[in-house]
Amino acid sequence: MKIMFVGLGLIGGSMALALEGYPGLERYAVECDEWTRFEALGRGAVRAAWASVEEAPLGEMDTVVLCLHPHAAAGFVRTQAHRLRPGALLTDVCGVKRPICDAVAALGERSFVYLGGHPMAGRERGGFANATPDLFRGSHYILTPDDSVAQDRVQLMRQLVTFMGCSDVVLSTPDAHDARIAYTSQLMHVMALALCDQHLLFDSYGFEGGSFRGATRVAALDPKLWCELFMANREALADLTDELIEKLGEYSALLRGGDSQALLERLTASSERKKEFDRLRSQAPSDTPLYK
Hints:
Elements: E1 2-6, H1 10-18, E2 26-30, H2 34-42, E3 48-50, E4 63-66, H3 70-80, E5 89-92, H4 98-106, E6 113-119, E7 140-144, H5 151-164, E8 168-171, H6 174-196, H7 210-216, H8 223-232, H9 234-257, H10 260-283
Parallel strand pairs: 1-2, 1-4, 2-3, 4-5, 5-6, 7-8
Antiparallel strand pairs: 6-7
Helix pairs in contact: 3-4, 6-9
């Protein structure tokens, strides 16, 4: 099977490295950066790499993985999807699904199969220089198949990502994916950024423990990428940000009110919700669609 990664940044490069040794797999890439192409070839991540999509042999590929920002991935669909061979699998790793899903839907009839994907893995620093074959070890991999995607394609992606080290595959619809990612990922970045905007940040060296480091870790982000992700999912993220502000306001009121019993009850209730989430998630089969 021939697979092509369009983009060899952190995710695309790590996928290519992680798939070394997958039976019968030939890995190729499109990457505009010359140094990255040479480095990827030198590390054995791919057999060959092209500087542009236009010169790459897309029509020879069985699977194409778009490792691009959402709007660039949608642009690929609009301008290059017609070059994919009939029956080819097109997938992506975009953090929001709506832009590329809309681009695929706008094509009307098509001969390739689109199966959206999103690995729940990453690092603060991007680029192929930071790519590692163990990036996905123990992580979730979300797939967003619609009714047109045959089960053998879902199974193929399941086999590929399991080989990469992912702990499970979670199935979702594109809309449910974007709504939940707004909560579990994008809102976490908003919180981290807001914490780093507070006045005590630079006066706190030596006082930061694991909870502070964990809560602020993702604030060292790629502003251009995350601006695009936030704006592509802005309504859901704005609603959740408003809800978070409301919840924080409730804690502030409890603290200012000085009612320790009411505060204890609130802390207990929130702690129990987290424990119940952990219990239910541990019991859910990894291949069960969690959201309709």
